[in-house]
């Protein structure tokens, strides 16, 4: 129940964990893996699947020149994605330039902030129902950092 316009953690988590959102998150993770296997190391290092719009994958690209080149190569890339992913492959690609995207920064994950044991246990309980271990780990990290930013320890 919300008080004074603020939403409870339960309300926020119910919204975040709706079936549609989890399916979307699972699709992004599958498409990220498929993307990296299909485009080669240079493109994979300088791009990332960041969203889903229907059957389209939204791809963040570190530089506009690379985004233009990928747009030109889109039919070939889509063919490779379909070869490797079949029905699970995206039907189209949307490229958007994001100069802040840097895979080098992501090679070492930041340390999780310290939270009190009760908060850690609550986060563990909230994420326990997620079957996909990678998705569970990512969601756990999001919650840890969210609680830390809000000053809850």
Write the layout of secondary structure elements.
Blueprint: H1 9-16, H2 19-39, H3 41-45, E1 47-53, E2 56-61, H4 64-72, H5 74-85, E3 92-97, H6 103-106, H7 117-127, H8 133-149
Q: Could you give a quick summary of the protein structure above?
A:
The protein has 153 residues and is of the alpha+beta class. Helix content is 57%, strand content 12%. The protein contains eight helices and three strands.
Could you describe the 3D structure shown?
The structure is a single chain. This protein has 153 residues and is an alpha+beta fold. The protein folds into 2 domains: 20-105, GMP Synthetase, Chain A, domain 3 (2-Layer Sandwich), CATH 3.30.300; 109-149, no CATH class. It contains 8 helices and 3 strands. It has a 3-stranded mixed sheet. A hairpin with a 2-residue loop joins strand 1 (47-53) and strand 2 (56-61). Helix 2 (19-39) packs across helix 5 (74-85) and helix 7 runs antiparallel to helix 8 (133-149). The two termini are 22 Å apart. The relative contact order is 0.11. Mean pLDDT is 80; it is low at 105-110. InterPro entries: DciA-like. Residues 100-119 are annotated as: Disordered.
Shape: elongated
Give the spatial strand order of the biggest sheet: 1-2-3
CATH class of the largest domain: Alpha Beta
Based on the coordinates given, report the CATH architecture of the largest domain. 2-Layer Sandwich
Terminal Cα separation, in Å? 22 Å
Main sheet overview: 3 strands, mixed
Overall domain count: 2
Structure class: alpha+beta
Mean pLDDT: 80
Instruction: Specify Rg, calculated over alpha carbons.
Output: 18 Å
Protein name: DUF721 domain-containing protein
Organism: Thermosulfidibacter takaii
Region (Disordered): 100-119
InterPro entries: DciA-like
């Amino acid at each position: 129940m919300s008080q004074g316009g603020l939403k409870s953690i339960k309300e926020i988590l119910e919204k975040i964990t709706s079936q549609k959102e989890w399916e979307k998150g699972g699709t992004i993770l599958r498409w990220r893996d498929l993307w990296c296997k299909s485009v080669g190391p240079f493109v994979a290092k300088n791009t990332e699947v960041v969203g889903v719009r229907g059957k389209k994958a939204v791809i963040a690209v570190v530089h506009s020149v690379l985004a233009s080149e990928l747009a030109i190569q889109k039919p070939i890339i889509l063919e490779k994605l379909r070869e490797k992913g079949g029905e699970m492959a995206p039907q189209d690609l949307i490229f958007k330039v994001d100069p802040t995207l840097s895979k080098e920064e992501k090679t070492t994950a930041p340390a999780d902030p310290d939270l009190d044991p009760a908060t850690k246990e609550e986060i563990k309980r909230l994420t326990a129902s997620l079957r996909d271990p990678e998705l569970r780990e990512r969601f756990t990290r999001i919650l840890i950092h969210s609680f830390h930013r809000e000053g809850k320890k």
